[in-house]
Design goal:
The protein contains 15 helices and 18 strands. The protein is globular and about 70 Å long. Helix content is 35%, strand content 21%. It is an alpha+beta fold. The chain folds into four domains: 86 residues, 2-Layer Sandwich (Uridine Diphospho-n-acetylenolpyruvylglucosamine Reductase, domain 2); 119 residues, 2-Layer Sandwich (Uridine Diphospho-n-acetylenolpyruvylglucosamine Reductase, domain 3); 109 residues, Alpha-Beta Plaits (2-Layer Sandwich), CATH 3.30.70; 92 residues, 2-Layer Sandwich (Alpha-Beta Plaits), CATH 3.30.70. Strands 15-12-14-13-17-18-16 form a seven-stranded antiparallel beta sheet, with helices on both faces. A five-stranded antiparallel beta sheet has the order 5-6-10-8-9. A four-stranded mixed beta sheet has the order 1-2-4-3. Helix 13 packs antiparallel against helix 14.
Length: 468
Amino acid sequence: MIDKAVINQIQNTVGKGNVALDKETRICYSYDATNLKYLPDLIAYPTTREQISETLKLANEYRFPVIPRGAGTGFTGGTLPVQGGVVMVLTKMNKIWQIDRENLFAIVEPGVITYDLQQEVEKIGLFYPPDPASLKSSTIGGNVAECAGGPRALKYGTTKDYVLGLEVVLPTGEIISTGVITAKGVVGYDLTKLLVGSEGTLGIITKIILRLIPLPKSKRTLLAIFPTIDAAATTVSQIISSKIIPATLEFMDNACIRCVEDYLHMGLPVEAGALLIIEVDGAPEALSVEVEEIQKICQANQAIEIKVAKDNQEAEDLWKARRAVSTAVVKINPTKVNEDITVPRSKVPEILRRVEAIGKKHNLIIVNFGHAGDGNIHVNVMIDKRRPGEEERAHAAVKEIFTTTLELGGTLSGEHGIGITKAPYISMELGDMGLEVMRRIKKAFDPNNILNPGKIFPEKQTKQVHHL
């Protein structure tokens, strides 16, 4: 526990009205989308970089952890206070400082909601592409900390491709600026890229410079249903090799289709092996040709049905199936072990076949969906913890899935990060020396291990609290 005198200093720094000590509020910040729970000692809501800096200086003096947090939508436990301490919630720092039309950038604070920024820039014909599933609640700061992706990553890339510069409070309290607002810049080490995706372990982001691009003039959406996963995966490869790069290319397997149909009653064929949702964007005159070519490729790969949206409302209707997946699949079993492996696009059929075999081996239900266009598969092991041994079988299955992913030239995480849930497996991909180099970087930035301790690096977790 943090000493009362230190708490008083934190209140004097951040403002008494911006510090919460009651258990009810602390419980609200004890968990994220993993539903693991660790109780913090207090919650702070800073409004300036100086408040953050002074709090971190106190943390180094009195050796208490500080955990930066946005909306808490992460899937790997990156914002959990595994060693107690201060959860620093950045949602009050939510200003959009500047949108520059001429130079195509925006400057924002970390608490800005992703969707809100997108709406603002689109009003003036600009575009911020990264679109994580949580975009209507997740914050830009959290997106940067996790290097969030989303369906549009196939064509437009992930968050790291849009961060030009950062203002960051280091773990020891110093404030630095990284990056540039210019199109080019190669002065010194690229600290911006190092900090993007560092999961709040190397600094607390207080300002972000984001690259913007022109808003596409039009988009078209298709839904195609296939008899097998292989047919759908072959379609994906052929679309890309035909020189068409869709904005999104999403897939759902048979288990997903069944779950969504049971949940929404959309008329989806439950015997289908897979479905693809394909969206292209750009100049209207080019899209008709692309849509026609995509339809031909789908038909050549035995598509059972192809639907092309006539307008935005029909497009939204086609997306309903994909957006309902997360809600629908929990009807199978109450607990979802959600992994986001990524393999080369050509290996998608192979990884899905091998995941299916792993599920059968361990007598587990595994549901797959995700971003087929960039090989990013959301593998969901559906379990009921009340059944003896099921959770242990799930962990064994996940390790086998990770091993298989690496054998196929893939990576353990495409967009969710490591946090605490993937930390036990990180050396499988990076090796001992790779992990040691990362430890040295962490030590250089944070010599007292103050900032978001217990994340990324494998170590024994403590103080787990199951109070809900």
